[in-house]
Amino acid sequence: MLVHERNFTELRKRIEELEVFCRERNINLSSEIKLLCERVKMLEEEIYQNLGAFERVHLARLLERPGAMDYIQAIFPDFLELHGDRAYGDDPSIVGGLATLEGIPVTVIGNRRGSDTKENMKYNFGMAHPEGYRKARRLMQQAEKFGRPVITFVDTPGAYPGTGAEERGQGEAIAQNLLVMSGLKVPIIAVLIGQGGSGGALALAVADRLLMLENAFFSVISPEGCASILFKDPGRAAEAAEALKLTARDLYELNLIDEVIPEPVGGAHRDKPGTAEKIKERLVYHLKELLQKHPEELVSSRVARYRKVGWDYL
Amino acid sequence: MFPGLKKTKYIELDTQSYFHEHPFEKCPSCKEILVQKQLRDNLKVCPHCEYHFRLTAAERLTQVVDEGTFEEWDAELTSSDPLSFPGYMEKLKKARESTGLKEAVVTGYGEIDGEPAALAVMDSHFMMGSMGIVVGEKIARAIEKALDQGLPFIAFCASGGARMQEGMLSLLQMAKVSALLNKFSQARLLYISVLTDPTTGGVTASFASLGDIILAEPGALICFTGPRVIEQTIGQKLPDGFQRAEFMLAKGFIDLIVHRKSMKATLAKLLRLHPRGDRSARSRTEFHGA
Question: What is the pTM of this model?
Answer without folding.
Answer: 0.92
